[in-house]
Amino acid sequence: MHFENIKIIHFRNFETLDIKLDNKNVIFGLNDVGKTNFLNAIRAVFDYKFRNSINEKDFFEMDLHNPIDIVVFLSLESTIADEDDQLLIANLKGALHDNVSNPNIIKIRLKISWDEKQKDTLIEMFWGNNDNLTELSTIPTKGISRTEIDNLFLPVYMEPLNDGVKDFQRSRNSLLSLFEESDPTLTEQIQIKNSEINDLLSKSDIVTDLQDELTSEYSDLRDEHSKIILNSEQQIGKLPTGLKPYVQLENSSSLYPSSGDGRKKFLSYAIKNLLAKKNEQQKIIIHLIEEPENSLHKSLQKSLSRKIFNPNDPNFYKYIFLTTHSSEIVSEMDDTMLIRLGLSNSHSTMFTVPQAFKNIRKMYSEHISEAIFYNKVFLVEGPSEKLLFESILNINNIFIEEQGGYILNIRGIGFKPYFELLSGIGIKIFVRTDNDIKPNHPGEKVYTLPGVKRLVDLFDDSKAALQSSQFRLHEVQYSTNIKDLDDIKKYIYNNPDIKVLHGQNLFISKNDLENDMVLASGDSIIADLKDKGLKSTAAVVNHLQSSKQKNMVEFVKVMSNTTSQKLYENLDGLKEFVDAN
User: Fold this and answer.
1) Do the bridges between strand 506-508 and strand 14-20 make them parallel or antiparallel, or are there none, so unpaired?
2) What is the pLDDT of residues 474-495, one digit of tens each?
């Protein structure tokens, strides 16, 4: 079974939303864009308790004339059906048809209308594989408030603020009922000891005095011959009711209360997972996890990410819908649908670590997991660019992250996977690369332009046209008698097509970062580096290009306001990035 997409109409803040899904989904966005409402739309379909709590306030803009309509699309395996497929097919029965365009696409539809006479909601549920949603079969009801679908799916909702101790107390009888005592004599011994303890407690002065006082107060309120008795009930039937969870650390005999927020959260997850696993054979489990980062240190967030997105145990956390603000929570994700919600538009795109990055998966995922939470991202080649640009902005009192911007260092491992993924979820992308030129073969006069090619590979030619045949055909070669590479770099930079690339926020340097810095700032950069004894701009370039990152760190410490302002105004792409909405 595979989640394909969801359509939400007139539910809470969603007038209409159509988003592609996967079996593992991460939902994110700014505050108040509807992340919790998105989870609740899924809960409404699969959780009868939540579904029956929906009222007039849940209708979009409280317009009761337009019904809430939520449709979840699922696909089944066309060849070998897994257990979930078989369970779903067995329950659908007469709702499946052969004469449809795609018999393996199942729709589950929830329609909630407002009954003006009854002043209450009218809930209807349908399912099947019909092409027309209005021709789906009505889902059979089970009792007053349940339907057949509620015997099929088990939604496990994990709220952002949870308390494992309270969850244990609420679920204690359910948890204990899952197990049986193998030694009946032990049960008898427990009952005898409990009776002895209760007898001793009843003789305590504290208990007897309290009984008398309560009896007196009760008698003042009600004229009857009675007495208040405080009886210790440590046992109901054969199940002890005074159990409370503690934590025992390894190599320690001491018990610690499960009172820390982190411990409470993990205990709560453990309890819900245990109860869910015991139902695994009967129902399809869907995990709905809301902001799991709350109350967890970053190291614990990363640990939880490994558990949730563990590729070695894909079957338990098989269907996940997770909302988060934390890059650590998604640091271990792979094969996950990223759903970015916005007030005016929303996007979803599949995140998969490219094969070329498998060996450096951690670095790639960490970069992405940080960048996805911003509205605009500037992709730069290396750490020197990132360090310089962030320093320029800070000196100029431009706090780019507060504007929803982020500068991402791709460490020279390719713009394209970052560009495609981030732009696929609606993030505005800016790219700056060096104006690299190299001969195809030593001694030949045919030169390849890898700098231009990086940008042309990202260019959307459906929105604009490049005039240069080399650029347009993505061959990006230049054949001529080259005496001076600087001349050809000037030719490339001044080519009209470079301005066309700029129109899509794709920027190339005049030469490279260090040479462009000197061109942009002139003598002021020499003054900044006076302690290095550098007398010319050529010496500055050589200095910055040797031990690049180390020398860039030293430079930004002494960079003057004058230099930073010149660099901000003249380094292609930086000001455009800041000015973008």
Assistant:
1) unpaired
2) 555 655 555 677 888 888 899 9
- For the entire predicted model, the pTM comes to 0.81
* 326 shares a domain with 203: no
- Domain C-terminal end among 326, 353, 380: 353
Domain extent for 474: 357-579
Domain C-terminal end among 337, 353, 369: 353
Q: In this structure, what token pair is assigned to residue 249? A: 């650390």
Non-local CB neighbours of 200 within 8 Å, separated by 6+ positions: none
State the Cα–Cα distance between residues 239 and 177, nearest whole angstrom: 9
Instruction: Give the chain's mean pLDDT.
Output: 86
Both tokens of 58, joined, read 């849940």
Paired tokens of 542: 């050589």
Query: What is the rounded distance in angstroms from the CA atom of residue 465 to the CA atom of residue 459?
Result: 9
Which residues are bridge partners to 320 per DSSP? 24, 287
Name the band, by pLDDT with cuts 50, 70 and 90, for residue 236: very low
pLDDT tens for each residue of 155-192 = 999 988 776 666 777 776 677 777 776 777 877 777 77
Looking at residue 295, what is its pLDDT? 83
Q: Which residues contact 456 (CB under 8 A, 6 or more apart)?
A: 466, 471, 474, 476, 501
Q: Answer yes or no: is 432 within a domain.
A: yes
Residue that wins the pLDDT comparison between 467 and 546: 546
Closest by alpha carbon to 338, among 1, 19, 8? Answer: 19
Average pLDDT score over residue span 135-154:
92
Give start and end residues of each alpha helix (H) in 237-378.
261-278, 298-308, 361-371
- Looking at the domain assignment, is residue 525 inside a domain? yes
**Cβ-based neighbour number of residue 73 at 10 Å:** 18
Q: Assess contact for 1 and 46: CB atoms under 8 A.
A: no
Sole residue written with tokens 């497929």: 85
Say whether both 406 and 529 belong to one domain.
yes
CATH (domain of 302):
3.40.50.300
